[in-house]
TrEMBL record:
Pfam families: Peptidase_M76
Membership in a protein family: Belongs to the peptidase M76 family.
Residue span of region Disordered: 1-22
Enzyme class: hydrolase
Upper taxonomic lineage: Eukaryota, Metazoa, Chordata, Craniata, Vertebrata
Keywords: Hydrolase, Metal-binding, Metalloprotease, Protease
Biological processes, Gene Ontology terms: mitochondrial protein processing; mitochondrial proton-transporting ATP synthase complex assembly
Name this polypeptide is given: Mitochondrial inner membrane protease ATP23
EC code: 3.4.24.-
């Protein structure tokens, strides 16, 4: 999890106040409020900007386009007005996946650049894709959460060279894996009341299997060019399977 612009791990199911604290729901205060009217929301620049950037991401970003297509083919079609919500959040997060509603929360007060929106949407769509294709126990099995966080950090562009340089983190051999591991641990600690030792143990135990699970990309998309190639390969794979 990255200070000031982090992509959080999945948000929890709404139950009691104590459980919400345990699962990090306090990071998303608008989840507990009644929806505002369109007229009220339209008065807030943050909300308008968030909606515009989201639309741009969904229409032009190859990472998001591939994930949306993969989810549709898995029987989990994503609808913009149903499955995305621009809301105000705690200052340390940029987004989250609410498994209780299958909805991606985008933190309109913390996402200020299109590149950041692209990364957050991709990160949370990976959680949504995992939720669609597998029986993920987000709330009771920290290994399940760790696996999805590893995949999200690995495949979303969180750990690209340019992003790491912007964080003043440099490395050569194995640095990508180090970044993925660190960010997965940070995300777990942000939304679960577990010790660092527990988070590290969960990440380490599933790291190899989850790091090498590259679905639906088929490769680690280090750049947009990689993501575009992955998207083309995914579309061609589907055409090939349709002809069998």
């Amino acid at each position: 999890m990255e200070d000031g612009e982090a992509d959080s791990s999945p948000a929890p199911e709404k139950k009691g106040a104590e459980e919400e604290d345990d699962f990090g729901y306090q990071l998303f205060p608008d989840r507990n409020k009644k929806p505002q009217s369109f007229l009220v929301r339209s008065l807030f620049t943050f909300h308008n900007r968030c909606q515009v950037m989201l639309r741009m991401t969904l229409e032009t970003n190859p990472y998001a386009q591939l994930l949306l297509e993969a989810m549709k083919q898995s029987g989990c079609t994503v609808f913009n007005d149903r499955h995305f919500s621009c809301e105000n959040c705690d200052g340390c997060v940029s987004g989250g996946f609410d498994a209780a509603t299958s909805q991606i929360v985008l933190c309109q007060n913390n996402i200020r650049q299109q590149s950041h929106m692209n990364r957050v949407v991709t990160h949370e769509l990976i959680h949504a894709f995992d939720h669609c294709r597998a029986h993920v126990d987000w709330f009771k099995n920290v290994k399940h959460l760790a696996c999805s966080e590893i995949r999200a950090a690995n495949l979303s562009g969180d750990c690209t060279l340019m992003n790491e340089i912007a964080r003043f983190k440099f490395g050569l051999k194995g640095h990508h894996q180090t970044c993925v591991r660190d960010r997965a641990i940070r995300s777990i600690l942000a939304v679960r009341k577990v010790s660092r030792e527990t988070a590290e143990k969960a990440v380490d135990e599933v790291f190899d299997a989850c790091f090498n699970d590259l679905e639906p990309f088929g490769r680690i998309p280090h750049t947009k060019a990689d993501a575009r190639r992955a998207y083309r390969d995914f579309q061609n794979r589907d055409r090939y399977n349709a002809n069998l």
